[in-house]
Design goal:
alpha/beta; single chain; 367 residues; Rossmann fold; globular
C-alpha cells in the first residue's frame, strides 16, 4: 500500500521520541501508591506484571513486580531492611547496586520496557535505596529520570505501618527509619528534575497538585488535563483511604530524635512551594543528616550489649538446629524457592526482612 501523500512523512531530521522515566520515592504508606495510580491513569506506563492489590491497599499499588523482586534481592544481599534506620545502610546498598550483575539486569530490563513505551513510571518504597543506580542506568539507555517524593506527617506513617504491616513497630524505630529514608532521598535527587508532594494536598484537591508535578517535571500531559482525565482520576482518588490520623503527641520518642524529626519535617514541608530555590532548606537538612548520623552511632555504641546478646542467642539456636538434608540442584530447594517467589509481594511484605532473608538463604539451591 502506498503512503498517503497528504500525511506528514517522517524524515531523517525527525527526533526520536524522548524517553522519560518517572520515579516515585518516599517512605512506605506516604501516598506513593495514590500518586502513582493517578499518573498511570494519565498515560504513564507501569511495566507489567503489577503487584496485585490487597486489603492494605485496595486501590492497587501501581508497582511492577519485577522492580519489587529486584530491590528485594539487592536488599537481602546487602542485609538492609526496607525501613532501615542505620545511616551506613546507604553505603551497603550502594556497594551491591554497583555490581555488574545488578547494573546489567537493570539495563536489559529498562531497554525491554522502553521498547514498549517511552514514558515509564516506576514506584516502589524500596527504590530510595537505589536512586543513584536508577539515575545512572536511565541515562545509559537514553532516558531522562525525574523524581516525585511523597511527604506525609511521620506520625501518620508510623501509625499506618503499625496498623497494616507491623503491629510491633516501635515509635522510635519507625520515626528513625523515616528520618533516615527522607534525608537521603532528598539528597539523592538533588540536581535532577523533581517534585515534592504532600499526601494531604493530593487527597484534598488533586488537580492543582498534578499540574504542578507536570510543570516541575516538564510533562505536558499532566499540565493539560481533559474532562475525561478529571473524571477518571476523580473516580480513583478516595480521601477516605487516609485512615490513620496520629500526631507527634501520640508518639513516645526520645527528646533528641523527636527534635531532629520535627525539624526535618518542617524543612521538607517547605519544598513543595519553593521548588529548586531551596539552598537554605537543603543546608538545614544536611545539618540534620550529620546530627542524626552522630546520634545513631552514639546510640549504637550504648546498646552494643543488646546486639551481642541477640547474635549469641541466634548462634546458639543455629548450633542446636538439626542438620538439613542436602538436596541436588533443581531438587526440593529449587522447587521450594520457585514456589516462594510466586507468593505475592503484598504477602511477603508482612514478613520482617531478616526473616525473609533467612528463608531465601535456606531455599536457595546450593552449588
Amino acid at each position: 500500500m502506498s503512503p498517503d501523500p497528504s500525511s506528514p512523512q517522517p524524515t531523517s531530521e525527525d527526533p526520536a521520541p524522548q524517553r522519560r522515566l518517572v520515579l516515585v520515592a518516599g517512605a512506605g504508606r506516604s501516598g506513593t501508591s495514590t500518586v502513582a495510580g493517578i499518573l498511570q491513569r494519565l498515560g504513564l506506563v507501569v511495566p507489567a506484571p503489577e503487584v496485585v492489590s490487597d486489603e492494605t491497599n485496595p486501590r492497587g499499588f501501581s508497582e511492577s513486580q519485577w522492580v519489587v523482586d529486584f530491590h528485594d534481592d539487592l536488599l537481602m544481599h546487602a542485609n538492609v531492611q526496607v525501613s532501615d534506620a542505620r545511616p551506613d545502610a546507604w553505603t551497603r546498598t550502594s556497594a551491591f547496586a554497583e555490581r555488574p550483575g545488578a547494573t546489567r539486569l537493570l539495563t536489559n530490563w529498562l531497554e525491554e520496557q522502553f521498547a514498549e513505551s517511552d514514558q515509564l513510571l516506576i514506584k516502589d518504597p524500596r527504590i530510595s535505596w537505589f536512586l543513584p543506580l536508577w539515575t545512572t542506568i536511565a541515562r545509559r539507555v537514553g532516558a531522562e529520570p525525574s523524581f516525585i517524593t511523597m511527604l506525609r506527617p511521620p506520625a501518620e506513617i508510623v501509625g499506618s505501618k503499625r496498623t497494616y504491616y507491623n503491629s510491633f513497630l516501635q515509635d522510635a524505630h519507625g520515626v528513625a527509619a523515616w528520618l533516615n529514608m527522607l534525608l537521603n532521598t532528598e539528597r539523592a535527587t538533588r540536581g535532577s528534575a523533581r517534585s515534592f508532594v504532600r499526601y494531604h494536598d493530593l487527597l484534598g484537591d488533586w488537580e492543582p497538585v498534578i499540574t504542578r508535578i507536570g510543570a516541575d517535571l516538564d510533562l505536558a500531559r499532566l499540565r493539560e488535563l481533559t474532562p475525561a482525565d478529571r473524571e477518571v482520576v476523580g473516580g480513583f482518588v478516595d480521601p477516605s483511604l487516609r485512615r490513620v490520623n496520629l500526631t507527634w503527641d501520640d508518639l513516645d520518642l526520645p527528646d533528641r530524635l523527636a527534635s531532629m524529626a520535627r525539624e526535618a519535617w518542617a524543612a521538607l514541608d517547605e519544598l513543595p512551594e519553593i521548588g529548586e530555590d531551596a539552598s537554605d532548606v537543603m543546608a538545614r537538612l544536611d545539618r540534620i543528616h550529620e546530627e542524626y548520623a552522630a546520634y545513631y552511632l552514639e546510640s549504637e555504641g550504648v546498646s552494643r550489649s543488646s546486639v551481642i546478646a541477640v547474635r549469641q542467642a541466634a548462634e546458639r539456636a543455629r548450633k542446636q538446629s538439626p542438620p538439613e538434608p542436602v538436596a541436588a540442584p533443581g531438587g526440593f530447594r529449587g522447587m521450594a524457592a520457585s514456589a516462594a517467589r510466586r507468593v505475592p509481594s503484598s504477602v511477603r511484605r508482612l514478613v520482617p526482612a531478616p526473616a525473609r532473608a533467612r528463608v531465601r538463604a535456606k531455599l536457595s539451591p546450593r552449588p
